[in-house]
Amino acid sequence: MPLATLRPLLLSALLVWAGGVTTVRAAPVDEIRALLASALVDPPDEQALARLAGLDATGRAPAVQAGAPDAFDAALRAIDRHARYFAADAYRSPLLGAAESSGIGARLLAQGDAVLLDVYQGGPADRAGIPDGARLLEVDGRALGGRAVQEVAVLLRGEVDSRVRIAFADGDGRRRTVTLERARFTPLEVELVEAGALPVLRIRDFVGSITRTAALATVAHLGRGHSEGAPPALVIDLRAAPGGDLYEAFDLAAAFLPQGALLGTLRSRSAPPREVRAPGGPKLDMPLALLIGPDTASAAEVFAGTLQAHGRAVLIGGHSFGKCSSQTDARLSDGSVLRFTNLEVLLPDGQSCSGRGLSPDVEVDATTLVRLPDLLRLARVRLGTEGPRPAGGG
Q: What pLDDT digit, counting tens, does each position of 12-33 carry?
């Protein structure tokens, strides 16, 4: 049973077409200062608040171009590194979930001078048979050597139904060239990546009332071929999970922990610390490995950190992002919106991961981190069906 319905604050990493330029109207600075002073999870620095007020004598920040560096944005983030200001006409509520997007259906990953493709199931790249981790070589005949990821993303963007020709190298180094038609699509929150002896679920986002249900339904489907009704071991890939619904992450973690296990403690300015504990109900007890990396953040970090603290899962990969906090959106008098940090999550060991991230139990280098087969070999060693199962926690 879900613990709550806090919808996700999604950081989208799609290759999407962005048309036009948005202008942010003047921001009501006095309202923003008052809101941060009273509701930010930790009392803000008075000097930082004064710098924010000093941007404009009338109490309103000058209009700036969306996304452009400006003094207002810098002053706001000096108070709360995760704060963000939206003009009324540029705001999309996180209650609407992930937006349908157009593109090739892949996320770009930097590995040294190489650009790799993290392919989304159901998108154009997936339908063309481009494998995860393929190295992108050319876009419409343009070689990519030395180009930054952001520059490559611009080359890949385009209108719906337009075409782009890309050359890539697969895991064995073979060069292939395909023409993709950009299309609208909505990425899945949970993907079944591999269904072999060690099945892999990839969670890209924790969406309220969706992710837990989808993950458990997939595990149940996988278990139909086993006498115990569940696969003998499981891997959950969180490398591309920037966060989402905090309570959905708690809900899914609770499915692997006994009733009453401490999932985390919520700390805010408006109420005393509140413990969140696992409810009763059916539990999954198969050995579990979680794949994490620098993009694993927020609710995904809480999920991983909770299971690691209880000894219920082994973490494999790289250090996570370091954001065990939650943000809320406040509507201002002119219709604009301020997103700011109103909640900090303490893991079962009493510590927050904010600013430090999670340390994996099995740490790998950057090259191995993007190679799922290599990570699965490590997981098989740690989760061998002949070996002991992780402790259940409590």
A: 222 322 333 333 446 788 899 9
Could you tell me the residue range of the domain that residue 106 belongs to? 101-185
**How far, in Å, CA of 64 to CA of 87, rounded?**
10
Q: Which helix (H) or strand (E) element contains residue 192?
A: strand 190-194
Rounded to whole angstroms, the Cα distance separating 157 from 16 reads: 6
Amino acid (1-letter code) at residue 299: A
Residue type, 156: L
Amino acid at 45: D
What is the mean pLDDT of the segment spanning 357-369?
A: 95
The secondary structure element, H or E, covering residue 136 is strand 134-139
The CA–CA distances, whole Å, from 39 to 53, 83, 308, 338, 361 equal: 17, 13, 31, 12, 36
141 and 238 share one domain: no
Return the pLDDT at 318: 97
Q: Over the stretch 252-287, which tens digit does the pLDDT of each residue have?
A: 999 999 999 999 999 999 899 999 999 999 999 999
Total number of domains in the chain: 3
**Residue range 70-113, pLDDT digits in tens:** 678 888 999 999 999 888 887 766 655 455 567 899 988 887 78
Q: How far is CA 212 from CA 35, 249, 336, in A?
A: 33, 8, 33
The answer to whether 233 touches 314, Cβ cutoff 8 Å, is: no
Containing 178, the helix (H) or strand (E) segment is strand 175-181
CATH code of 122's domain: 2.30.42.10
107/144 same-domain check: yes
Same domain membership, residue 117 and residue 52: no
